[in-house]
Amino acid sequence: MRIDLHTHSTASDGTDTPAQLVRKAAASGLSVVALTDHDTTRGHAEARAALADPASDAAHLTLVPGAELSCRLDGIGLHMLAYLFDPDEPELLAQRELVRDDRVPRAQGMVARLQDLGVPVTWEQVARIAGNGSVGRPHVAEALRELGVVSSISEAFAPQWIGDGARAYVAKHELDPFDAVRLVKAAGGVTVLAHPGAAHRGATVSEATIAALAAAGLDGIEVDHMDHEPATRARLRGLAAELGLLGTGSSDYHGSRKTCLLGEFTTDPEIYGEITRRATGAFPVPGAGGTPAPLTTDG
Questions:
Q1: Please, what sign has the CA dihedral across residues 177, 178, 184, 187?
Q2: How many Å apart are CA 30 and CA 6, to the nearest integer?
Q3: Which of 42, 6, 254 is nearest to 134 (CA)?
Q4: Helix/strand/coil (H/E/C) assignment for every residue in the chain
């Protein structure tokens, strides 16, 4: 089994539609893929429909419905992967809507600040790039790349542009990560802290904070990720063992918007099995061509 538990579609800031994403996941040899768009579950229905077609390339794939929740603690941005929660649970749904509703004015504010810095970016350009997705910083970054202001998406997140605290940065509504853990748990889901060691993105939370989140019910941390150097992955693997957390691996696939490939990093089947065992809000969705992927290596 090959399991990738962190991907994005055009429902947020990826470049593949949900249907394209699951078909590509199957073609890349994955058995299980999680769709974890930012603060939304809007892509799940299309992904499910692609799996439900017996003639689809994705008919033998298992889908894990999820989302990546935007959080902030003491001025540090962090992301919480939420799996297999009830998407209609009222309190969690209301918080996701607050985050999503704040995305447009926040992106418009960044456009205005970039214009003040002499960058000829427009809101119309950013909105075109975002399409029907939840507009976010990657769409502003893509606009900067289109204009030749930066050569890559990651360069746009440098301090002089739209990174945390940067010249054109604008804050948005974000969850307290402790509240995120509580809300996802109440909705029957499982929480994994995404790319906690991605220091090049900006400040990261301390190991003491991760320990406090673990005590509050955090289920796991993303260990194997493209933004983690080997030494960081080793450190996080040790931390997960010390705190009794699940250690996952994922691609954080965004289509052509990032260089990572589907299945570039994967999650151990036993870890996946434990995630599904803990969840009560939703269940993995098997494709029409088979039964759900086994939950553990021994079935």
A1: negative
A2: 12
A3: 42
A4: CCEEEEECCCCCCCCCCHHHHHHHHHHCCCCEEEECCECCCCCHHHHHHHHHCCCCCCCCCEEEEEEEEEEEECCEEEEEEEECCCCCCHHHHHHHHHHHHCHHHHHHHHHHHHHHCCCCCCHHHHHHHHCCCCCCHHHHHHHHHHCCCCCCHHHHCCCCCCCCCCCCCCCCCCECHHHHHHHHHHCCCEEEECCCCCHHHCCCCCHHHHHHHHHCCCCEEEEECCCCCHHHHHHHHHHHHHHCCEEEECCCECHHHCCCCCCCCCCCHHHHHHHHHHCCCCCCEECCCCCCCCCCCCC
* Closest to 276 (Cα-Cα) out of 293, 298, 258: 293
Query: 152-206, pLDDT tens digit by residue?
Result: 988 999 889 998 889 999 998 999 999 999 999 999 999 999 999 998 777 899 9
Neighbours of 159 (CB within 10 A): 12
What is the model's pTM? 0.89
The 3-state DSSP class for residue 241 equals: helix
